[in-house]
Amino acid sequence: MMQGDLVVRKSYGGDVLFRVATIDQQTAVLKGTDYRLLADAPIVDLSVVKDGDLPVAIRQARLKAGESTQRMQEERQQQILQRELLRAQNQSQPYFDVPGKVLHLDGDSNYMKKSMQLYTQMRVPAHGLFVHESQMAEAVYRLLPQIKPDIIVITGHDGVLKNREQNDLNDLMSYKNSQNFVDAVQIARDYEKNRDSLVIVAGACQSHYEALLKSGSNFASSPGRVLIHALDPVYVAIKASYTPIRETINLPDVIHGTISGIDGVGGIETYGKYRVGLPKPRTLTGIKATV
């Protein structure tokens, strides 16, 4: 077994696919390839997986991820058709899109790259940065005045700690990074107190959902303390970016559209950030100077 190998844990029935990050004697540190999970495991508990021989659970998760992306693309195409129909009825000049701008802070560089690829695919203006979870509050404080986003995503790795007090899931100290996420959300909400002016999406696997909402998030994970897919926060941000400013984001639609579903992501009623403009900018040539 080597660093970079794809593996599953035998004791967990191979439910999550990992990539070996580091190996220290007989223990490996693992990063989930599809889920925002950081774990360690004895090497004897790991089984190497080839790309063409993925467990059923992994194939189903990737299939649902593809379906979620396709659904977003179809919704976006329908939005474009409706806009063009309005233009034809009014015999007006072509409109142009102004989707909400996203600032995405991620505690995992690979997930950040995947997230930025999806933003680009969906034509969402986004600025992404890999930031360790412990540094996110400082990064939020520094970057919000510079980037001035409409939506901020604060995510990375999290999880319920093994050595916590039994059943004490209300204590932030029972989580790997929930306190760091809460601190970052509080900084963001102090910067912009109006929840419709700055949409905050926060959390990762098994994060303290209630604390994140209380600290100012619009959307957070995880109501059921479950593993969430790496791209779930991105799907929520894209939905916010392309929901018109006069409409609230459809909560059941956005939540059930994620891979993790109602146990993975929740939120509160929030207005979207999408606008249209008129007329569409065009290339100007042959303009005569007047001064």
UniProtKB/TrEMBL annotation:
The keyword Coiled coil applies. Keywords: Coiled coil. InterPro entries: Peptidase_U57 (IPR008764). Residues 58-91 form a coiled coil. It comes from the Bacteria. This is Sporulation peptidase YabG. It comes from Paenibacillus glycinis. The gene is yabG.
